[in-house]
TrEMBL record:
UniProt KW keywords: Cell outer membrane, Membrane, Receptor, Signal, TonB box, Transmembrane, Transmembrane beta strand, Transport
Domain TonB-dependent receptor-like beta-barrel: 243-672
GO biological process: siderophore transmembrane transport
Organism from which the protein derives: Chryseobacterium indoltheticum
Family under the similarity heading: Belongs to the TonB-dependent receptor family.
Location within or outside the cell: Cell outer membrane
GO CC terms of this entry: cell outer membrane
Membrane protein topology class: Multi-pass membrane protein
Protein name: Colicin I receptor
Segments forming domain TonB-dependent receptor plug: 46-151
GN (gene name): cirA_1
GO molecular function, a single term: siderophore uptake transmembrane transporter activity
Length: 711
């Protein structure tokens, strides 16, 4: 009923709006520009960094609903979903979400455990995204701590060319084979509304709202109503039900050399965990029943953001970002009578995580009246206060609440020197200060050389730190069976990367445009934090800076365009070397390589304007040394070569416009090869695993229909 009412309200809201021409999303781009790692907005072809761009049209053709689904198509990015919590985080170059900085409009996004890292990408919908920019490699000088594997910068729409624009979108999608809109509500149901108002030549307003209703996926389980006296642990969902509502509103001003915007983002999300275990429960008077200990999670996030770009005097460029963000996640436990399908008791809501962040970043550039030399001086500060409830970490954290505040301040300086028309050089340095950690230094050196008028080479060196997480610092689980403790003396990890990138644009022949790219990268992470055994009898664990991690990446890409046809293809080979230490035993550190490939192809029929879109990605077998589990804690540690199985993903979309492009219908299939889980002997059993040696990745093949109406 909730989604039906939302659909009707959304449609009613826009009926008063007169028909307008297509909005700026459908306007032909004059030149593609990027902002990630730049002094000011810059043509992608002139960027000194290698920036990968996923634009709004590509996102639309994919028919995806969240940033997680978009990024999963990119090479060397694996979105690792946790079907137990509903979160999805990006792994770049084999490193998890804590090594990647996620930004929205150049500002790190608040998450449960801080700013910019460990971000749940399924909480970022694509409803108002203009493009996504990706830079791989350590970006510590420009973006500070946790930008070890790279930066993902999500750029939102803030301005429209028409006086009034409105876009209504409704999407219905199966979840595996499950779908029932009228009765149970099985499947995924999305409604979105985008509004844009150009108040004058200088002022504009935008607003959007998105509702994403995911009813969960049972998989090998049987839903929350299932009951079996043998307690076969088949109750519940492999993918938890999730209801998410996101809204954005922004006002923008632009005149001459000054522009600014203020934007507010609000998110609310409810996730339902249904315990697969049941227990015997006395009701009194000799009556008994069977109960489960269920839990609901409730997340609320606010992001207030102000950005200004202007000139100080007649020359100096200033760009300032200011943000105040909060994210609170609560949980509520209750006892559910499974046979009688009723709630017996409900606890009060308690705080799981509560994070508040004030953030500011300012950059000054263009000090010199010189076309060949420019330099940038900047500062960055964030004050993060976090609260973790007594049951946030594994088990119950011994009833301890954790409340900490971390203040970070940094200055960074870089200079860009155009030695001649072909060669540019940019060195950079950052000094970061913190009230929790020692001072950190990061360095970068980037060079770009135009080998010909159609080709260029980029060489990029950079470093970045990763600060320890709340879990690594403050976990405290001590009982008869466990002794797992955080370590407040941990120091930040340090990552170094070096990359070479070659791009070549072939001369156009018969309107065929072909671009070729080649790349090679090396990443080295030192003092990596791991949970290790510090005592066998009694068995004790803690977190220590003991491991090293290295990865090698070689890749190539091909882009082909002609008239209504476009094709993007890529292939990469990545090797991972990881040194693990347990006591005096050290694992082998050989490189283990695996391959990936992707392809995206679009074709539009001339007469009917029908669009055919195909997206494919292959991920090969990944091998990695891991510590063998041993029931005997006094036995010597042993390392074995585990592996994660290979899989293929294929999506297809057909889109047909009607009524002079005002109405658009899309039909498609996601995950045509019906991938759900893969064999994983690197990590066995856990929150994100279906069971021992099995890791859930997707929920199988699904079908969707989407209707867009552009008023």
């Amino acid at each position: 009923m909730k989604k039906k009412v939302f659909s009707i309200v959304s449609l009613s809201t826009v009926l008063w709006i007169n028909a307008q021409e297509k909005d700026s999303l459908n306007q032909k781009k004059i030149e593609e520009v990027v902002i990630t790692g730049q002094y000011m907005q810059q043509s992608i072809n002139k960027s000194i960094y290698k920036v990968e761009v996923i634009d709004a049209q590509q996102i639309k053709n994919m028919a995806v609903t969240t940033a997680a689904e978009v990024l999963n198509q990119n090479l060397n990015i694996l979105i690792e979903p946790d079907s137990g919590t509903g979160d999805s985080r990006a792994s770049i170059m084999g490193l998890g979400g804590s090594y990647t900085k996620v930004l929205i409009d150049n500002i790190p996004v608040v998450g449960d455990q801080g700013m910019g890292n460990q971000i749940d990408l399924s909480k970022i919908n694509v409803n108002n995204i203009e493009r996504i920019e990706i830079v791989k490699g350590a970006m510590g000088v420009e973006y500070g701590n946790n930008a070890v594997a790279g930066v993902i910068n999500i750029i939102t729409k803030k301005n429209y060319t028409q006086k009034v624009t409105a876009l209504l979108s409704l999407q219905e999608e199966t979840v595996g084979k499950d779908y029932d809109w009228y009765k149970k509500g099985n499947g995924r149901h999305i409604q979105a509304l985008n509004l844009g108002f150009r108040l004058s030549n200088n002022w504009s307003l935008t607003a959007d709202i998105n509702h994403n209703d995911f009813q969960g996926y049972e998989g090998d389980l049987n839903g929350y109503k299932y009951f079996n006296l043998s307690n076969d642990k088949k109750r519940g969902y492999e993918w938890l039900p999730k209801d998410q509502l996101t809204g954005n509103a922004a006002i923008r001003y632009s005149k001459n050399n000054t522009s600014f915007f203020y934007k507010v983002n609000f998110l609310t999300e409810d996730i339902n965990f249904r315990d697969p275990r049941i227990t015997d429960f006395p009701l009194g008077g000799g009556e008994r029943t069977f109960i489960s200990q269920d839990r609901d999670y409730f997340t609320k996030r606010w992001i207030h953001q102000f950005n200004i770009q202007t000139k100080l005097g007649s020359r100096i460029n200033y760009q300032g970002d200011f943000s105040y963000q909060t994210q609170e996640r609560k949980y509520q436990d209750y006892i559910y009578d499974v046979p009688n399908r009723q709630t017996l008791s409900t606890d009060e809501k308690k705080v799981y995580y509560d994070t508040k962040v004030f953030y500011s970043r300012g950059m000054f550039s263009n000090f010199l009246d010189n076309e060949k030399i420019n330099f940038q001086l900047g500062y960055e500060l964030d004050n993060t206060s976090g609260f973790a409830g007594s049951s946030t970490f594994e088990f119950n954290n011994n009833g301890k609440n954790i409340e900490q505040s971390i203040f970070n301040y940094a200055n960074f300086l870089s200079a860009e020197w155009r030695i001649d028309d072909k060669f540019s050089l940019r060195p950079g340095v950052r000094l970061a200060l913190s009230n929790k950690f020692d001072s950190q230094y990061n360095y970068s050196l980037t060079a770009r050389y135009n080998t010909t008028s159609r080709s260029d080479v980029r060489a990029v060196f950079g470093s970045s730190n990763r600060f320890p997480t709340y879990e690594e610092l403050y976990t405290s689980v001590v009982d008869n069976n466990h002794d797992i403790r955080g370590n407040e003396n941990l120091k930040p990890e340090t990552g170094y990367s070096f990359g070479l990138f070659y791009d070549y644009s072939m001369p156009a022949v018969n309107n065929w445009k072909v671009n070729v790219s080649l790349s090679g990268m090396f990443l080295d992470v030192q003092d990596r934090i791991e949970n290790v055994i510090v005592s066998n009898e009694p068995l004790k664990y803690t977190f220590l800076n003991i491991n090293n991690y290295r990865s090698l990446l070689f890749g190539g890409g091909l882009t082909v365009k002609k008239d209504n046809f476009s094709l993007n293809a890529g292939v990469s080979v990545m090797g991972i070397s990881q040194e693990l230490i347990s006591g005096t035993v050290v694992s082998p550190d050989d490189y283990n390589f695996y391959a990936e490939a992707n392809l995206g192809a679009n074709y539009t029929l001339d007469k009917t304007k029908t669009l055919f879109a195909l997206y494919y990605k292959y991920t090969g077998v990944r091998k990695q040394f891991t510590q063998k589990f041993n029931q005997n804690p006094s036995a010597a540690p042993e390392y074995i070569l585990g592996e994660v199985g290979n899989f293929n993903m294929l999506n297809f979309t057909l889109t047909q416009p009607f009524f002079n492009n005002h109405l658009e219908l899309s039909l498609g299939i996601k995950n045509i090869f019906d991938v759900s889980s893969v064999r994983n002997t690197i990590s066995s059993g856990g929150a994100h695993n279906a069971g021992a040696d099995i890791q859930n990745l997707f929920y199988g093949r699904s079908y969707f229909a989407r209707l867009n109406y552009n008023f």
